[in-house]
Specification:
By secondary structure, the chain is of the alpha/beta class. It contains four helices and 22 strands. Strands 1, 3, 4, 6, 7, 10, 13, 16, 18, 20 and 22 form an eleven-stranded parallel sheet that branches. Strands 5-2-21-19-17-14-11-8 form an eight-stranded parallel sheet, with no helix packed on it. Strands 9-12-15 form a three-stranded parallel sheet, with no helix packed on it. The longest helix has 38 residues.
Length: 294
């Protein structure tokens, strides 16, 4: 009987290490979940303004055969010229009405949200011919965009890029913005403290939230929005398309929180199995003791 008890104690001590499994796994899960994501910035909520390719306060003026894929809005002004003839609005025109006024209100909220987010990069005056990762980029005064600017989403379709411009935003003629590795135009925002101008033949990405006015010069393509809070939007033979966010597959373990969840579930399952195993060993041990006594 003494030998049987010794065997039981050995088995119990052999499984004593299992008590450390939940602690270690929980610590790992907490450590993983506590890691701050590289792209902590969030997309400014556009509200009803999200459906507008062009939104202005004073006037909307167009020359040439521009095409807007999205709504055209104006408030409180009433003057829209160049739509039509020759140009197309693949959406509705909301001029000096409640819908346009609400869109302007929502634009102001989005502008304030973008300007209030904490910058991850500061002191900019020009960007171009380089690759940027998700973040909030701040230019204290004017910002020039030239050459080819590449925005790298790093495999995250929800990656957000915010450019805070203290005064004027200018894109040189022929400037282009490329989106790679999951970056989407719907998550690119340009918060402009005065006015924005896109040079001729530019290919631009993202929503421009300008405090004053926006000028889109000849032959530009904007995969985004031209939204002006207090001034005019001027177009010349341009194409503007309201961007939509596509849902892209993300690897299961790409997110720290997802990985933490997997670790947590595995811990619970493993601990449960170990407890059942331990009870079986204890039960069989007691049975063996009983048999030896009898």
């Amino acid at each position: 009987m003494v030998n049987v008890r010794k065997q039981i104690l050995r088995k119990r001590s052999g499984y004593s290490w299992l008590a450390t499994v939940p602690v270690l796994s929980t610590s790992v899960a907490v450590l993983i979940a506590s890691q701050s994501p590289a792209d902590a910035q969030t997309a400014p909520p556009l509200g009803t303004a999200a459906t507008y390719a062009v939104l202005a306060a004073t006037t909307v003026t167009n020359t040439g055969a521009s095409v807007l894929s999205g709504n055209l809005g104006l408030s409180p002004g009433t003057s829209v010229t160049g739509f039509p003839p020759g140009s197309i609005v693949n959406g509705s025109q909301q001029v000096a009405n409640a819908a346009a006024a609400q869109a302007q209100t929502d634009l102001t909220s989005a502008y304030n949200n973008a300007s209030a987010q904490t910058a991850t990069t500061t002191g900019l005056s020009s960007i171009g011919n380089q690759t940027l990762t998700p973040g909030v980029y701040n230019a204290p005064s004017a910002l020039l965009v030239n050459g080819v600017l590449t925005l790298d989403g790093q495999g995250n379709p929800e990656a957000v890029f915010i450019f805070q411009v203290g005064s004027a935003l200018t894109a040189d003629s022929g400037t282009s913005i490329a989106l790679i590795n999951g970056a989407q135009a719907c998550n690119v925002f340009w918060q402009v403290g005065s006015s924005a101008t896109l040079g001729t033949g530019s290919t631009f990405q993202g929503s421009i939230l300008a405090l004053t006015s926006i000028t889109v010069t000849t032959g530009d393509t904007l995969d985004g929005q031209a939204l002006a809070s207090n001034g005019a939007v001027t177009l010349d033979d341009d194409n503007i398309t309201v961007p939509t966010c596509s849902v892209m597959p993300v690897p299961l373990l790409a997110s720290p929180l997802t990985l933490a969840g997997v670790v947590g579930v595995a811990t619970v399952a493993w601990t449960g199995w170990c407890l059942i195993r331990r009870r079986r060993i204890t039960f069989h041990g007691r049975s063996a003791v009983a048999e030896s006594v009898s």
